[in-house]
Specification:
By secondary structure, the chain is an alpha/beta fold. The chain contains 10 helices and 10 strands. It has helices at about 45-55, 75-80, 100-105, 115-120, 125-135, 150-165, 180-195, 210-215, 230-235, 240-245, and strands at about 5-15, 20-30, 35-40, 60-65, 70, 85-90, 170-175, 200-205, 215-220, 225-230. The chain has a 6-stranded mixed beta sheet with strand order 6-7-8-3-9-10, with helices on both faces. Helix 3 packs parallel to helix 6 (about 150-165) and helix 7 packs parallel to helix 8 (about 210-215). The structure holds adenosine-5'-diphosphate (ADP) and magnesium ion (MG). Magnesium ion binds near residues 46 and 47.
């Protein structure tokens, strides 16, 4: 049997806020190791979808399954994170008064409290692992810098590094290129592409240049539902996508 293995399966998921259907009968399947890009106009439900996957919000109906049929809707945020699903929010949240190195150290698998961590010593294997992560996220030269001194783009990379330190199976990344320079955006794209395969990555993004750089499969959300799915060229040529983005039909 060579059935494709989905690491995440959403089926018929709906979520209403005060009578407003933020997610409406959404079904979405992501394969292990995939780099999936989700686009859609503001308010399409993209961030809410991540809230539902991570247990921040519970669906009204539908199923959300991880890997070998683990029902995520029955678990809380902490339990879902422990399964290996990490999320990066839009605004970076790093420990600004600690060094880049310490930020990664604090995030290592089996992480401890800030105090117990900083009052103990870094083991050689931890040092090696921290070095690997810093290299991955282009911050090897910044290990001793205070995180608060980093540029916006570097803070975003540090936060991705903090997630990687936990060795997640799935990484959910919400609009990583927002506020980045063009060069930072390209490096972020390279970083996410280098992580695919080893990790499954779901990226929400608006910047179509960035989407074109990284995307294999693009999923378009609109009014909480899946509008279409395909390559960048396919979705950009799709009349329904042109209509929801530009509010008009494509001329024939
Ligand atoms: P996107 O990320 O695609 O821009 P969101 O998922 O943030 O869209 O929001 C989808 C819709 O759901 C919006 O209209 C938003 O106001 C609404 N919404 C999201 N979260 C909540 C919440 N916790 N309470 C009430 N409304 C919400
Ligand atoms: Mg959003």
């Amino acid at each position: 049997m060579t059935r494709k293995q989905f690491i995440l399966s959403l089926e018929g998921v709906s979520k209403t806020f005060d009578g407003f259907k933020a997610i409406n009968d959404l079904s979405l399947y992501v394969e292990e190791g995939e780099l999936r890009v989700i686009i859609g106009p503001n308010g399409a439900g993209k961030s809410t979808m991540l809230d539902l996957i991570t247990g921040r919000t519970r669906p009204d109906s539908g199923t959300i399954e991880f890997a070998d049929k683990t029902d995520l809707t029955a678990l809380n945020e902490y339990q879902i994170n422990r399964l290996g699903i990490g999320r990066k929010f839009q605004t970076p949240s790093v420990y600004v008064d600690h060094t880049v190195f310490e930020n990664i150290w604090l995030s290592l698998e089996g992480s401890r409290s800030l105090w117990s961590c900083l009052s103990s010593r870094v083991t050689p294997s931890q040092r090696e692992r921290i070095g690997q992560v810093l290299k991955q996220v282009n911050l090897a030269g910044k290990a001793t810098a205070k995180a608060g001194m980093l540029s916006h783009g570097q803070k975003q990379w540090l936060e991705i590094g903090m997630l990687l330190a936990q060795n997640p199976k799935v990484l959910l990344v919400d609009e990583p290129a927002a506020g980045m320079t063009d060069e930072e955006t390209i490096r972020t794209g390279d970083l996410l592409m280098s992580l695919a395969g080893k990790h499954t990555i779901i990226v929400i993004e608006h910047d179509m240049v960035f989407v074109r750089q990284i995307a294999r499969t693009v999923t378009v959300l609109h009014q909480g539902s899946l509008l279409c799915e395909g390559t960048v060229d396919e979705v950009q040529a799709d009349e329904r996508v042109i209509e929801v983005y530009l509010g008009r039909k494509k001329k024939t």
